[in-house]
Amino acid sequence: MLVNQIAVFLENRSGRIAEFSRVLSDAGVNIQAMSIADTEEYGILRAITDDNEKSINALRKNGFNASSTDLVGFSVEDKPGEMFKVLDILEKAKINIGYLYSFAKSSKKSAVILIKVDDNEGTASILAQNGINLVDQDIL
Questions:
Q1: Residue 76 sits in the same domain as residue 127
Q2: Per the structure, how many domains does the chain have?
Q3: Contact partners, residue 76, CB within 8 Å, separation at least 6
Q4: Of 55, 78, 116, 139, which is the most buried if we count CB atoms within 10 A?
Q5: What is the CA radius of gyration of the chain?
Q6: Percent residues over pLDDT 90 in the chain
Q7: Is the confidence at residue 56, as pLDDT, over 80?
Q8: What is the C-alpha to C-alpha distance for residues 9 and 93, in angstroms, rounded to an integer?
Q9: What are the backbone angles phi and psi of residue 129, rounded to the nearest 5°?
Q10: What totals of helices (H) and strands (E) does the chain contain, helices first?
Q11: What domain range includes position 23?
């Protein structure tokens, strides 16, 4: 039901994302999903790795500002309208989504969607009551 992600504040300059990935590579960490939101001066890189604790320690040791947070994860069939069905349920329940990212799992013909909300437990409960397939860290 919950997926832990890391968030890293990066200066918006050439090579900074490569440096992020080098640090994790050197630490033996696999990046499973990643999203970047940027402005002219900085960006927030959000990632799911196979070992977030190890990732944060390695990043901090190398001067990165890194933290972690939990997201609600669910999966849907990888076809038109499936994400809308879930987002419509959440909208009707007045759940505000701060951000989301998703990725398709071609081997399973499904998509995993991760959302940041104010109330993880309440949101997960609403989704479960509506038959939505919740996922956790192991599904990635």
A1: yes
A2: 2
A3: 82, 83, 85, 86, 110, 111, 113, 132, 133
A4: 55
A5: 16
A6: 63
A7: yes
A8: 32
A9: -60, -25
A10: 4, 7
A11: 2-70
CATH of residue 124's domain is: 3.30.70.260
Positive or negative, the CA dihedral 106, 110, 115, 121 is negative
Query: pLDDT over 70 for what percent of the chain?
Result: 95
Query: How far are the Cα atoms of 11, 68, 100, 117 from residue 71, in angstroms, in the given order?
Result: 24, 10, 9, 7
- Whether the per-residue pLDDT at 109 is higher than 90: the answer is no
Q: Please report, for the domain that includes residue 45, its CATH number.
A: 3.30.2130.10
Beta bridge partners of 19: none
**End of a domain among 28, 45, 70?**
70
The token duo for 6 is 């890391």
Mean pLDDT, the chain, as a whole number? 90
